[in-house]
Write a structure and sequence with these properties.
The protein contains 14 helices and no strands. The longest helix is centred in the middle third of the chain and has 37 residues.
């Protein structure tokens, strides 16, 4: 009996997440992007220990000096160290992007799962509301909120998050529509489990794959929106800075101090590319059709 057990290997099932991780590890570009983002986050949030100067200290005798050993990325129009401001600006931009994306995910996942599970008239009504909201220029609504309620950091990521949940809701609704007639959902319904527990314990966990993929694509969209608002002067206010405000300052003096535009634009572009590469890699890894590869 022991010889037979050693001769025949035991077959163990592989979960969706284990299979996805195995396929993601084969995507070198996605892994490189993820590594870059992790290192970037660590550097940004260790900025007080890394930056040789404070981001708000002014030295009016060294305004708009080029990159040097003393100021690695040069200085701005007020003599502030650009390297420190880029690091602190990255903290702000990534924080706004991640938190706003989480707001959009929470609202979109709950709304879309309820709409898809209820179906019928409720689904039609809830989706018509989404269609109407799609027709509204949300970026202008964000600008109105920022002007009316003040330029508050918390309001910024909430407002940006509330402009991104519509597509998330549609994605989740489509997933729920394909899942609600599955055997495990029908079994839970027959057993008398309440609808809210079916949605939160069974449906939403089975939609996390597409949600995670879209979330990685929402973060760069939110960062760009924040950069646009900051470019208009409606985003982060001094002495704090984001990549958007730094780019705005750099554009104003790009002929005299091109480094003020180059470095924040470089970090913003690298971050956006990395997030998109990671999102594409996660999409391929979580695609069930990829299991046959």
């Amino acid at each position: 009996m022991s010889e037979l057990s050693t001769a025949v290997p035991s077959s163990q099932g592989v979960s969706l997440w284990d299979d996805a991780w195995a396929r993601l590890k084969k995507n070198r570009l996605a892994l490189l992007a993820a590594t870059f983002l992790i290192l970037e986050v660590l550097i940004f949030f260790l900025a007080p220990l890394i930056a040789p100067h404070s981001y708000e200290v002014q030295d009016l005798e060294r305004t708009m000096t080029g990159p040097s050993w003393r100021h690695w990325f040069g200085t701005d129009t007020l003599g502030r160290d650009l390297f420190a401001r880029v690091l602190y600006g990255g903290r702000v931009s990534l924080t706004v992007g991640i938190l706003a994306s989480m707001v959009s995910a929470i609202v979109g996942v709950i709304y879309g799962s309820i709409s898809g599970f209820l179906g019928g008239r409720w689904d039609n009504l809830m989706m018509r509301v989404v269609d109407v909201l799609y027709a509204l220029p949300f970026i202008f609504l964000v600008i109105i909120l920022m002007v009316y309620f003040g330029r508050n950091f918390m309001l910024l990521f909430v407002a940006l998050g509330l402009t991104q949940w519509l597509t998330m809701a549609r994605i989740v609704r489509g997933q729920v529509l394909s899942l609600r007639h599955k055997e495990f959902i029908e079994a839970a319904t027959v057993l008398g489990i309440q609808r809210k527990w079916i949605i939160f314990r069974h449906l939403i966990p089975n939609t996390l794959g597409p949600v995670i993929v879209y979330l990685t694509l929402t973060v760069p969209a939110v960062i760009l929106e924040e950069a646009f608002l900051s470019y208009l002067g409606l985003g982060i206010q001094a002495p704090l800075a984001s990549w958007g405000t730094l780019i705005k300052e750099g554009v104003d003096v790009m002929d005299l101090a091109p480094w003020m535009l180059f470095f924040p634009a470089l970090f913003l572009s690298a971050t956006l590319f990395s997030l998109n590469f990671l999102g594409d890699g996660l999409r391929d890894a979580l695609d069930p059709k990829g299991a046959k590869d």
